[in-house]
């Protein structure tokens, strides 16, 4: 997870602001500029010396009798505080929150009668008793390329009371635009899914402007977070459980048809799920044990398998199964996984990307939308209902 540690740079006062040299100085949060027949008074809120300013408080600068030429905000840590200058150049206000515990200096330049005066205000943002941080962003592995179905999954270090306030500062910007939406999975996890698959071979920028956001219950966001996500080839696998075969394509071109043996269907847990799955992770080797059973129980097993690619949270993998090669392509005899030959397993393992799409049909058990990353099981309109912004 990449924390956005940029220094607090000067924030331009708006499209109409220009850089001018200071002539004189102001003390405290208010300065008066004498210019012939008119005076310019500049008021900065919060006033200098203020401590414990709420991180989501709005910084305001107002000029009377003159116009603001430039406003900058310098912070001791965290991200820069940006702002907007009104069209009449009489007022300026901040447009984002402050980093908790940071010290800030606001410098405002006002002009009247051709004279320029600089006024400053120095204050400190509140250090709250509790803060909210993003503890994990998925995907976030350095150098990783992911599949076109890949969601963005955020996990927080504490429950989020004001989900709307937090969701509002989450930004996803792909090189090739596509509609997408967030859905909350409980109070500590939120997932972004697109309406259609990502376009392959592009980068997606994720940014959370979380620092200083009021997350409810006296909790404020601790720091901003940013990630760059690389979308790789469009690798889509379609399989028919009844026909015992799956076809792997890359960017629309068929790579290989692989015979498999799926779940025997004797019980629900031994039935391979139909539906749209995503490849979640892989391991070589992986030790598989029967869910809910202990040694000595009927149906208990423990098996070490090679070249295992997971596609659900209910224990389903594509993996090497040399013991069932004779059934692959003709019968379903597994405990629910897709058993393939050692050579096909090694090949599939080698090309598999997290977020690749695996569409299976032909069984009596449909995968649940929240089983692993099977988020594509929900129609997009239904998916959006789980967001906090409506």
From TrEMBL:
InterPro entries: Big_10, LD-transpeptidase, LD_TPept_cat_dom, Transpep_catalytic_dom
Domain L,D-TPase catalytic: 235-361
Pfam families: Big_10 (PF17964), YkuD (PF03734)
Source superkingdom: Bacteria
PROSITE patterns: LD_TPASE, PROKAR_LIPOPROTEIN
Keywords: Acyltransferase, Cell shape, Cell wall biogenesis/degradation, Peptidoglycan synthesis, Transferase
Functional pathway: Cell wall biogenesis; peptidoglycan biosynthesis
Residues forming the catalytic site: 319, 337
Protein name: L,D-transpeptidase family protein
Organism: Actinomadura violacea
């Amino acid at each position: 997870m990449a924390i956005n540690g940029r220094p607090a740079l000067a924030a331009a006062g708006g499209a109409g602001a220009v850089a001018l040299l200071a002539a004189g100085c102001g003390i405290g949060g208010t300065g008066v500029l004498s210019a012939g027949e008119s005076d310019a008074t500049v008021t900065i809120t919060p006033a200098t010396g203020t401590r414990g300013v709420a991180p989501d408080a709005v910084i305001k600068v107002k000029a009377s009798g003159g116009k603001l030429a430039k406003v900058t905000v310098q912070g001791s840590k965290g991200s820069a505080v940006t702002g907007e200058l009104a069209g009449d150049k009489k007022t300026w206000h901040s447009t984002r929150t402050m980093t908790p515990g940071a010290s800030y200096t606001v410098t405002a330049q006002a002009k009247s009668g051709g004279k320029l005066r600089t006024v400053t205000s120095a204050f400190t943002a509140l250090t709250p008793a509790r803060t909210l941080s993003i503890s994990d962003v998925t995907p976030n592995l350095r150098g990783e390329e992911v599949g076109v179905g890949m969601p963005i999954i955020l996990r927080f270090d504490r429950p989020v009371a004001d989900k709307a306030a937090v969701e509002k500062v989450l930004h996803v910007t792909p090189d090739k635009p596509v509609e997408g939406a967030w859905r909350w999975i409980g109070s500590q996890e939120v997932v972004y899914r697109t309406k259609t698959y990502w376009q392959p071979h592009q980068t997606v920028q994720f940014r959370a402007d979380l620092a200083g956001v009021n997350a409810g219950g006296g909790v404020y966001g601790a720091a901003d977070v940013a990630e760059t996500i690389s979308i790789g080839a469009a690798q889509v696998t379609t399989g028919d459980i009844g026909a015992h075969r799956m076809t792997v394509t890359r960017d629309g071109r068929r790579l290989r048809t692989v015979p498999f043996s799926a779940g025997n269907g004797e019980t629900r847990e031994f039935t391979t799920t139909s539906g749209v799955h995503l490849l979640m992770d892989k391991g070589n080797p992986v030790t598989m044990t029967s869910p809910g059973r202990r040694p000595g129980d009927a149906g208990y097993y423990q098996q070490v398998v090679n070249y295992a690619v997971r596609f659900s949270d209910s224990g389903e993998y594509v993996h090497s199964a040399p013991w069932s090669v004779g059934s692959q392509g003709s019968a379903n005899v597994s405990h629910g996984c897709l058993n393939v030959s050692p050579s096909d397993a090694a090949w599939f393992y080698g090309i598999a990307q997290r977020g690749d799409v695996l569409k299976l049909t032909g069984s009596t058990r449909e995968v649940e939308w929240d089983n692993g990353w099977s988020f594509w099981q929900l129609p997009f309109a239904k998916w959006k209902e789980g967001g906090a912004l409506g």
